[in-house]
Amino acid sequence: MAELHEHARPIQFSNLSTAPLSRGQLPRTAGTVGRLALARTCRECPAVPARCHRARCLALPRQTPASVLVPLGQSVPQTPDQVGLPSGSFERRPVVKKFRQLAAFVGLLAVGLVLSGCAAPAPIPAARAHSDSVVLQNDLQYGTARGQKLLLNACLPKSKKAPTAAMILVHGGGFDSGTKDFGGMTALCSELADGGIAAFSVDYRLAPRFAYPAQVNDVTDALAWLRESAQVAQFGIDPERIGLFGSSAGAIIASSIGTNGTGSRTSGDRVAVVVAMSPAVDLTENGLLLGDPSKTAITSILQYLGCSDFTDCPNSRESSPLYAVDKTDPAFYIAISEKELVPVEQGKAMVLALKKVGVPVTLDVKPGKRHALELLDEATRASIRQFLVDNLVNSTRPTE
Fold this sequence. Notes:
- The chain is of the alpha/beta class.
- It is built from eight helices and eleven strands.
- The strands form two sheets. It has a nine-stranded mixed β-sheet, with helices on both faces.
- The longest helix is centred in the C-terminal third of the chain and has 16 residues, at about 380-395.
- GO terms for molecular function: hydrolase activity.
- Pfam families: BD-FAE.
């Protein structure tokens, strides 16, 4: 089976205020800009516990280094191959607020991911993985599955004046590899916190031992755990402003939870936003007709569903985010490239479904074959930064 890698590149990040704002109030200006270089990582697969709920899948690949710091309120300098959002990109709705200054945020992460073996990497040293402005708490237990512990890492802003928005990070790895500690999630977690957003990188059960809906259940349990009063108080987070960032397989899980259920996005197993990097959203036999899916993607999805083929796979529709979309779903940011592992038609199908019911969505289509975290070039990071400021940190969209 093909081996896929994502290479490390510097992360750029700025502090931003996450305090809730009333209508018409301008956000606070961000503080200093930080930068961290990520170590190259690869496949790391410790046994991850078990459990149950609802779910999705995929893999990863490579990046060119970029070491440009983005001062607050300035546009992002771009290299010739990093031209702004391509013509295939669009937003569902205009931004509802105008800002004098936009607080910079999202970081670039790098993942070493393999679907069939690779040399074990060294973890990112703690000193390089977080700054002095971040409180890092590792291996916190958010649940138990079949007698095994389910763990997450918490990255918290050291100085906070109000409950902060939060993001749950869901790693990729083709559903059979990856952890909360590797694949760039440690650095992303820290960088989000450095910018004022609490972040939680979670482990979930892996295939083939565990199939759908185990993975979705685990991440949903982490969401429910964070919303408990004890954790809200301990971490200083706003339980009404929690979002999901998923890459590859994690993007399927995040999209599944994002479209799961109806009603308010501020409680229960609902979330405020979803950022999905290279998500497959139709896991049915019909989904195979959307473009030309790679054999790697097909194999990973079947393993995730616990099926040998799509013609006899009872979970395939239930596990497909595309068929669960409704008007109460959170705003989505979908990044995908034209010729990658996941057909671009998958992303476009999700955008059409969300637009049809009036859900805000941004589609960022990149040229070439980059997959998942490889898509995080300067333009994409700037676009995600804007998306999170508008839809998570300072959202004015009704919650239902």
